[in-house]
Amino acid sequence: MSTETSTPGGGSAGGDPAAVVPSKGLHAGILDLGDSVMLGLASTAPVYSLAATLGLIVAVNGNYTPLILILGFLPVLFIAYAFRELNSAMPDCGTTFFWARKAFGPWAGWLGGWGVALAGIVVLANLAQIAGKYLWLLIGDGSLADNTWLVTATGVLFIVFMTYVNHRGIRLGEHVQRTLTYIQYISLGIFAVAIVFRIAGGAPEGQAFDFEWFNPAGAFADPGAVVHGVLLALFIYWGWDTCLALNEETENPAKTPGRGAVISASVLVAIYVSVALLVMMYATIGTDGIGLGNEANQDDVFLAMKDVVLGPWGWLIIVAVLASVLSSTQTTILPTARGTLSMGVHGALPARFGKVHERFMTPGFSTQVMGAVAVVYYVAMSFLSENLLSDSISAISLFIAFYYALTGFSCVWFFRSTLKDSARNLWFRGILPLLGALSLTAAFFISAVQMWDPAYGDTQIFGIGGAFVSGVLLLALGVVLAIVCRFAPSTRGYFTGERAEAGVVRGE
């Protein structure tokens, strides 16, 4: 049998003072605030995200890159407040799925859950590809990293291993995550300290710090470049919401995960801006050598700098990126599995998705399904077309913007009757989440327009950018699946309201 808990939410769309959150049998209270912050930081794959994105932003915005990183952070911070407020009222591991359903009804909830799952599955393919490549870069002369079969097989093994770790229990996963997090941050710290010493020793081709890099007037002299740069920066912060998906396994689930989300998002911007400044001062934004403007370096600016900065210890950067993507692989499976667990418990998916392993107290079936789907998608896309795989990964910005914006709008609507109660409510439940949601909605459409251009990305389909086509098709697949669930005997009650909340199924 399921037990139901009720948490004070300060009012809902229906005027109720509390929302009912059914207990699902997860290992309650096993994570503390420190664990929550660590998971939020690790989920973004910060070392890899910065290495792979910094050169692209520099190519568009030049020396204004630190300002762009801050501007891209603001909508994310506003949405983090939306997550925090909704979690305080409804600490359900389904997050966007559950909250959008409470605010706007079953269809919005189902599509919100699809957005979370879709982003996770697609990004797992990217992370597996990078992990496989970087592992073989460490071996021999690195030429094995060009072997598609070997890299793909290695990536599949990484997904399978991380799925196994997550299936065996949240504490084992937390230990693995802590180890990987220490490796990547210690390596990044050594890299940053080495740059500081080289700058202090007089980098021959470096550039001095300039407050002009943070001047909005100078940056907005080219508004189009600012928008493009912010869109690139916006999504390197994605992933901190993992700590919200683990709310039912965290101490004080109504408060701790929300605090963890805001803290981890804030720490990330400090890390990104600080490291970006150091790298810019040492390597400059030039187009030659290790310059950040060199097109040859844009896929990974750290890889281009590692030997110059660290000499024979340059392999530490490869280790840092590998640890970064592996930790993100594990933490990406966590929210997708818990999202589908919640959908199973609430009847939006077949009841088997709502099963919790009796011994490990994890979403057993959901975790296995997410891992299996990610493997199938990764292998299929890898051998169908590596370029199409790359473009489908580019389309992830659409999925993230969709479910983040939906969460922001859900916050405003759910708490609409309480916005006048205090200045705090007005800002943190109304104005800031609304600004974040509107910004991300704009980002969604701007990204879609950019992806429509056949010159965008590596492929084109019917004269349209492959990233746009793959993104739209995957989002549309969610609508098709929702319609199927609407009429399927096991899930139609979720849409019609004729079915009570499903009890958690123990066993397996």
Automatic annotation (TrEMBL):
It holds the Pfam family AA_permease_2. Signal peptide: none annotated. The chain crosses the membrane at residues 37-58, 64-83, 104-128, 148-167, 179-200, 220-240, 261-285, 313-334, 360-380, 392-415, 427-449, 461-484. The keyword Transferase does not apply. It comes from the Bacteria. Keywords: Cell membrane, Membrane, Transmembrane, Transmembrane helix. It is a multi-pass membrane protein. The keyword GTP-binding does not apply. It is found in: Cell membrane. PANTHER family: AMINO ACID TRANSPORTER-RELATED, MEMBRANE PROTEIN. This is Amino acid transporter. It comes from Arthrobacter bambusae.
